[in-house]
Amino acid sequence: MLELTPAERRDLRARAHHLSPVVTIAANGLTPAVAAEIHRSLQAHELIKVKVQGTERTQREELMVQLCQELGAAPVQHIGNILIIWRKRIEEEKNKAVEAKAKTSTRPGTAKSAAAFAAAARRAALMRASAEQRKGAPRSSANKSKGKR
């Protein structure tokens, strides 16, 4: 379980003020599916609210400690039936491999398939051709008269 300084906790409480609960823990308690959903939400948002229904205050406090220990998160606040939890995003090996591949790519906008690549090449060729036509085309008299006004 992560520990936060009072200043960090205050900042996180302020950031969480406008958030809505993303996960609800009901009568079945903390099931593996609920824990997995909280993990996904923390990975996506870092700071989340969890709504707990049908439990007493001491049970909610124990639940918050259990959640934070299982997920490696930090408890921010427990107010009423709402728990606020924070955890820095966990960098996954898959994300690191994708980033490494993107850095070694020679073109930033590579196509995902041969058909998409061909379509992008055709569009680029058409754009170049139309730009060359515009360069070589003489200005019309309407364009010249607009410039004199």
Describe the structure.
The structure is a single chain. With 149 residues, this protein is α+β, with helices and mostly antiparallel strands. The protein has two domains: 6-86, Translation Initiation Factor IF3; 109-137. Helices cover 56% and strands 13% of the residues. The chain contains six helices and four strands; from the N terminus they run αβαβαββααα. Strands 1-2-4-3 form a four-stranded mixed sheet, sandwiched between helices.
Q: Which strands sit side by side, in order, in the main sheet?
A: 1-2-4-3
CATH architecture of the largest domain: 2-Layer Sandwich
- Compute the number of helices: 6
CATH level 1 name of the largest domain: Alpha Beta
Under CATH, the homologous superfamily of the largest domain reads YhbY-like
How much of the residues is beta strand, in percent? Answer: 5-15%
H and E order: HEHEHEEHHH
Which segments are poorly predicted (pLDDT under 50) over 5 or more consecutive residues? none
Query: Helix share of residues?
Result: 55-70%
Assembly annotation: single chain
Work out the number of β strands: 4
> Mean pLDDT score, rounded?
82
Q: Kindly report the CATH topology of the largest domain.
A: Translation Initiation Factor IF3
Whole-number total of structural domains? 2
Biggest β-sheet description? 4 strands, mixed
Rg, nearest Å: 28 Å
Structural category: alpha+beta
Query: What does the overall shape look like?
Result: elongated
Short description:
Helices cover 56% and strands 13% of the residues.
Strand and helix map with partners:
Layout: H1 6-16, E1 23-25, H2 32-45, E2 47-52, H3 57-71, E3 74-79, E4 82-86, H4 93-104, H5 114-136, H6 141-148
Parallel strand pairs: 1-2
Antiparallel strand pairs: 2-4, 3-4
